[in-house]
Amino acid sequence: MRFDPWNPEFVAHPYDVYNELRRERPVSFFEPTGQWLIARHADVNALLRDRRLGRSYLHVATHQEFGRPDDPGFQDPFWRVVRAGMLDVEPPVHTRLRRLVSKAFTPRMVEALRPKVARIAGELVDRFAERGGGDLIAEVAEPLPVTVIAEMLGVPEADRHLLRPWSADICGMYELHPSIEAQHTAVRAAEEFSDYLVGLARARRADPGDDLISALALVADEGDKLTEEELVGTCVLLLNAGHEATVNVTGNGWWSLFRNPAELERLRADHGLLPTAIEELMRWDTPLQMFERWVLEDITVGGVDIPRGTEVALLFGSANRDPEVFADPDRLDVGRVDNPHISFGAGIHFCLGAPLARIELIESFGALLRRAPKLELTAEPSWGPGYIIRGLTSLDVRV
Questions:
Q1: How many CB atoms lie within 10 A of CB 32?
Q2: N or C: more exposed end of the chain, with fewer CB within 10 A?
Q3: End-to-end CA gap in the chain
Q4: What are the CA-CA distances from residue 119 to residues 12, 135, 275, 287 (Å)?
Q5: Is the peptide bond before 77 cis (omega within 30 degrees of 0)?
């Protein structure tokens, strides 16, 4: 098999191909997408921190100067939302946005959420266990981060059912060569979510509450505040990044444990391994397989010259299995201590929500281990079509 992100067999198990890439072609050009594939941990880690690359190039060049076509006009509402958040901008805009958002999204605020996350996870797992099981993704993995982020943002309970579909539809745009239908779906979702958040943000500016939207609306630094578009873009990013990854770490993680029963039994016997187990599950089968960056200045990687104006595809899934960094990398080890995985990224775009994701995952896995200790698989799951954001369609289990 070769690198083929549209092939379901490759998506289901890309790791043999990654092994070959690291050994024989650690820096290689992938003609179908016009990207340079970067397979080794050292290179991926270094490029994530290299300021000669960026998530965007529009702060230094036009589309034409980079040999790219203009964005289709119908995509404007999508890019207006996305480029108002932190993920797709570079310094100095990124620096300013991250500083302002960090003032509202503090470590102390995140840690204070732990009891609430534990309560939500416990209630979801109790209902799941009472029913005797079901689809672990739909009934536990998805509701938890949506409920947490909705409560953080202050989204009324009656509207929370809207968030998951918006998030999934928007994230469809991040796949390689999304279909025209997927692009239109992402644009519609971005428009609807933006309109909804604008209304919510205006209401909170006038009458602040004890929620993140109110905090973001009011936060200021030497007179500098988030604009309405920036606030909306930040909230969309918090939902998408904080939701999709957590859902897929949960689904992929339990499927990994079921495929490694000795490690599952080890974790069942010692819940104190949960912190290292969560890091290992993120390493072993990360939901974010690829992260793309634009080359803003000529670079050389592994002896290969990569010119300005091209794009690199940083293969997180490959980097996380690199034997130069991880002992016995293809073995799942829930007690692995030396684990510098890069599933949260690195450099200035390191995931702001990593502490919250870790809390959600530890509480979710812990609740299932305690309240459903005999959890077992009832059907082999199938992978969704996405490669960049890679996860299962469902995970059917019984208690």
A1: 11
A2: N
A3: 37
A4: 34, 20, 19, 25
A5: no
| CA torsion angle 19 21 23 24 (round to 10) | 150
Q: What crossing angle do the helices spanning 228-259 and 163-171 adopt, rounded to 10°?
A: 90
pTM for the whole structure: 0.92
What is residue 323's predicted lDDT score, i.e. its pLDDT? 98
- What is the three-state SS of the chain? CCCCCCCHHHHHCCHHHHHHHHHHCCEEEECCCCEEEECCHHHHHHHHHCCCEECCCCCCCCCHHHCCCCCCHHHHHHHHHHCCCCCCCCCCHHHHHHHHHHHHCCHHHHHHCHHHHHHHHHHHHHHHHHCCEEEHHHHHHCHHHHHHHHHHHCCCHHHHHHHHHHHHHHHHHHCCCCCHHHHHHHHHHHHHHHHHHHHHHHHHHHCCCCCHHHHHHHCEECCEECCHHHHHHHHHHHHHHHHHHHHHHHHHHHHHHHHCHHHHHHHHHCHHHHHHHHHHHHHHCCCECEEEEEECCCEEECCEEECCCCEEEEEHHHHCCCCCCCCCCCCCCCCCCCCCCCCCCCHHHCCCCHHHHHHHHHHHHHHHHHHCCCCEECCCCCECCCCCECCECCCEEEC
Q: Which tokens sit at 377?
A: 């698989």
Q: What is the pLDDT of residue 220?
A: 66
Residues 6+ apart with CB under 8 A from 180: none
Q: Which is nearest to 156 in space by CA: 106, 196, 112, 206?
A: 196
**pLDDT < 50 positions in the chain:** none
What's the pLDDT score for residue 236? 87
In sequence order, the 6+-apart residues with CB closer than 8 A to the CB of 29 are 35, 36, 37
Judge whether 292 and 311 are in contact, CB under 8 Å.
yes
Beta-bridge partner residues of 389 = 288
The token pair at 366 is 């812990």
How much is the pLDDT for 213?
A: 87
> For residue 46, what are the CA distances in angstroms to 23, 52, 293, 301?
19, 11, 12, 10
Integer-rounded Cα Rg, in Å, for the chain is 21
Cβ atoms 144, 121 nearer than 8 A: yes
Whole-angstrom distance, CA of residue 20 vs CA of residue 37: 12
Q: Are 145 and 239 in contact (CB under 8 A)?
A: no
